[in-house]
């Protein structure tokens, strides 16, 4: 006799999965959406039309083929990847983080990352049955060098993640500390440069000195969050090994063509990033004028401390402005909201909404 649905779920779905909450995306219709570090700009109308024609011409009846190789070559050019390094594609860097855990799935392996940090590192460990070790940042959100080195020595992690800049604190790490971590790491170090379009430094030039460093980027913050293209770069042979666990057709032909089109117009996105960096500076000054503590940012987000984060979050939401309340994510983030940098108009609306809640 076949089992009931309740029995099936109770006995055939992993216990820890049953205990999880699904990743919830908030309904943002009609809202000023400043919760997820998206680029607020859409493609200019003329380019939208041109892209539409390009996409109409894509052979949807075929599995992704050579155009994927074209995209990998275009991304390598875009990133100025040195010769001898390889590049693999993910359906967003979220997928790359999962694939890396899958490839490193040794019994008892550990993934280590500073905390507070991007949640997917811990989630990828949990889902692959790996151990996750989070090492607290200092109260001003710097890497705690000694704590990181001690934890690496103790746990011998298969992977160390360093988001550079970090999410949600938006800062870059001290470069001498990174080098010490890289020297000490017995496994891979992944430098996650999701926010590279807004950052003042990159690890790319230093990557070539190390055989165990991988560099991850995404087109999401560049302006194509909906297109879901992430890429990971590292020594060719290493990337080839990790690429073996990738589902063969993980990037769709439409996503691939849209990304290729966007890279042909990278100057448009570079101008948008430059404008967002100017807006970031204006926003930081305005937050200071409101008497609020915010931290320096090398990303398209700003972490700010407010007297009552829940009241500010709800008050802003009631005024149709959506930000992220990160105050309960980690004790170091007590009182904090994370604000995505939007257009001048959106930022003005956001500031007015925030002011009214203080
Ligand atoms: N890395 C970091 C540090 C992030 O903050 C994010 C997204 N918020 C990602 C990776 C994932 O980006 P995506 O899957 O859109 O490429």
Automatic annotation (TrEMBL):
Its cofactor is pyridoxal 5'-phosphate. CDD domains: AAT_like (cd00609). Its EC number is 2.6.1.9. Residues 31-353 form the Aminotransferase class I/classII large domain. It catalyses: L-histidinol phosphate + 2-oxoglutarate = 3-(imidazol-4-yl)-2-oxopropyl phosphate + L-glutamate. Pfam families: Aminotran_1_2. The keyword rRNA-binding does not apply. Belongs to the class-II pyridoxal-phosphate-dependent aminotransferase family. Histidinol-phosphate aminotransferase subfamily. Homodimer. This is Histidinol-phosphate aminotransferase.
